[in-house]
Write a structure and sequence with these properties.
There is one protein chain. By secondary structure, the chain is of the alpha/beta class. It has 14 helices and twelve strands. The chain has helices at about 20-30, 40-55, 65-75, 90-95, 100, 120-125, 155-170, 180-185, 190-195, 220-235, 240-255, 260-275, 300-310, 335-350; strands at about 10, 60, 80-85, 105-110, 135-145, 175, 200-205, 215-220, 290-295, 315, 315, 325. Strands 2-8-7-6-5-3-4 form a seven-stranded mixed β-sheet, with helices on both faces. Helix 7 links the parallel strand 5 (about 135-145) and strand 6. The protein is globular, with a radius of gyration of 21 Å. It starts with 8 loop residues before the first strand and ends in a 19-residue tail after the last helix. The structure holds pyridoxal-5'-phosphate. The site of pyridoxal-5'-phosphate has 13 residues, from helix 3.
Length: about 375
């Protein structure tokens, strides 16, 4: 024993990725200009590449995906309109009520099927009549991969069907594709096939793609013209932002296909944990997330998180009741998975009788 404690393995989120040495070189060498004037060549190139990747006409570069979602709410709908969203979506539970505060919209939250809002559910819920009482449904939003559902990819046919229904009903469809590249790689389809039928799409660059920050919002040229005004209003118009956009271009060239490595490591983690008796929620392991039902071990998510942290692995609270989340990403290697496979089962202990399990409450809601 050397006496030095084993390093902590951080599986809280793929937002923990740090720029690699090669990405930092791309950042250092970036050509820049004034982005607010449309004169930063690196930003312009990233916007062009992003639009193409996402199957849209145009894109705008933003500091965060949250800003992209908030802009989408404002450009598609008017105050007093209703937005239909999946109830556990990031835009509903993780954006500080921006639906109401920034866009003046009323929320109609629906339960999804593995995170997916079906065309049928939207058809049933939408207010499409010209009426003095009912609000106008202004917008439908979906999320892919769906964070709350365990990082699952929405089915491409389901997205297309929903897009057709929305078009028929005259409703814009926004896709929060913060982790869209994870879905594209896991499904083996081009991102444009998932996003091209939606009116707008957000892609986050600072999750699995490994940039220090940044996001893209894409749509048709007219919509992106309106989006640029909103971006300015939110304080998101920048100056020599090519410094950051260079990381985005680097990520599109070098960090997309490698997401398959993150998915393979998540799979190995899930299978290894399950083999060691851990209550993995196996049917949700599709991309870089692994959900664990810690109540099956007789623990609340808060207690389980503390125990696992004491053993040297950081997990995050999951949206799913009773669950904790492990996420793989660029900085998590095979050695980290090996160590996590030793530490997590030991920290959680064996599964217990149903009578000894605490209620399955969400780590985000309830006490
Ligand atoms: C992380 C995330 C966002 C927000 O991304 P930021 O760039 O951190 O603002 C939005 N939606 C989903 C689904 C996310 O996971």
């Amino acid at each position: 024993m050397s006496g030095t404690p084993a390093p902590v393995i951080d599986l809280r989120s793929d937002t923990m990725t740090r720029p690699t040495a090669a990405m930092r070189r791309a950042i250092a060498e970036a050509e820049v200009g004034d982005e607010q004037f449309g004169e930063d060549p690196t930003v312009c190139e990233l916007e062009r590449r992003g639009a193409e990747l996402l199957g849209q006409e145009a894109a705008i570069f933003l500091p965060t995906a949250t800003m992209g979602n908030q802009i989408a709410l404002r450009i598609h709908a008017r105050p007093g309109d209703e937005v239909i969203a999946e109830q556990d979506a990031h835009i509903v539970i993780s954006e500080q009520g921006g639906i109401a505060a920034n866009a003046g919209l009323q929320l109609r939250a629906l339960p999804g099927e593995r995170g997916m809002l079906t065309a049928e559910a939207v058809r049933e819920a939408a207010f499409c009549r010209d009426d003095n009482h009912v609000p106008r449904t202004g917008l439908v939003t979906i999320e892919c991969t769906h964070n709350g559902a365990g990082g699952v990819a929405l089915p491409p046919t389901g997205i297309k069907e929903l897009a057709e229904t929305c078009r028929e009903l005259g409703l814009p469809l926004h896709l929060d594709g913060s982790r869209l590249m994870n879905a594209a790689v896991a499904l083996g389809v081009p991102a444009a096939e998932l996003a091209g039928s939606c009116d707008t799409v957000v892609l986050c660059l600072s999750k699995g793609l490994g940039c220090p920050l940044g996001a893209l919002l894409a749509g048709d040229a007219g919509t992106m013209r309106a989006a640029r005004r909103e971006k300015h209003r939110f304080g998101g118009a920048m100056r020599q932002a090519g410094i950051v956009a260079a990381a985005g271009l680097y990520a599109l060239d070098h960090h997309v296909e490698r997401l398959a490595d993150d998915h393979a490591r998540a799979r190995r983690l899930a299978d290894g944990l399950a083999a060691a008796g851990v209550a993995v929620i196996a049917d949700r392991v599709e991309t870089n997330f692994v959900l664990i039902d810690v109540t099956a071990h007789g623990l609340t998510p808060a207690d389980a998180r503390e125990r696992v942290a004491a053993a040297g692995v950081l997990l995050s609270p999951a949206v799913m009741p009773g669950a904790l989340r492990a996420v793989t990403y660029l900085d998590v290697g095979d050695d980290h998975i090996d160590a996590a496979l030793e530490r997590i089962p030991a920290a959680l202990g064996p599964q217990v009788d149903p009578a000894q399990r605490p209620p399955r409450r969400s780590a985000l809601r309830g006490y």
